[in-house]
Amino acid sequence: MHSKEEKMEAFGRLLDIIDELREKCPWDRKQTNESLRPNTIEETYELCDALMHNDDKEICKELGDVLMHVCFYAKFGDEKGEFDIKDVCDRLCDKLIYRHPHIYGDAVAENVGQVLQNWEQLKIKEKGGNKTVLSGVPNSLPTLIKAYRIQDKARNVGFDWEDASGAWQKVKEEIAEFEEASKGMTKEEAEAEFGDVMFSLINAARLLHINPDNALEHTNQKFIRRFNYVEEHSIKQGRNLKDMTLEEMDALWEEAKKSLHNDE
Prior knowledge:
The chain is mainly α. Helices cover about 75% and strands about 0% of the residues.
């Protein structure tokens, strides 16, 4: 791979190009934090898609797009005289050193759990002690990921089940409550009970070292592949899905499961 000097040269070239685009390109010249933010979100999701498919070429490409956005935001800060890319890198380096006292200091962390516990305590101390354990979870996170992060942060201060068995018992209790109460619940009550079921399932997944967002996305993609198979083969039969019975579609679904190998 490339040397440290080559990497620094490439990053410098990128910064030069960002400067030139900001100066000469009508579109780039108009951009602000607010106007670029939706594009950044889209680029981040495109990177997530590449990561889910473990596609190294696409990961490299999408990382470049995200890095370009980072450089643009640093450029905006530089133009306002608030910060530049050096400040961004310096603050990140300082934070990484501070939060790894077991590497750069005298603290001891012999396993991942101890590292994470130290990390959360240092983050609170870093904020002057005025922040709560859960305050670092962004409100704008997708709800499934947010639930996982809330539970993970609570775990880092010892608020957690000892193992997955307790969490599974909670899942069963929540499902039973939802099933029983659903017979006479209002929409709001049903929503609240279902939320409890989802939260408990995410908790159980976490304790089994399963990332629920990744797991659900794999299932989403599996459903898409199988449904596409059903749709394609119904067209080959000269049929429209809307005109087929559920039994006929289910037969094609079972055929899809057998035909799409390694699709479990």
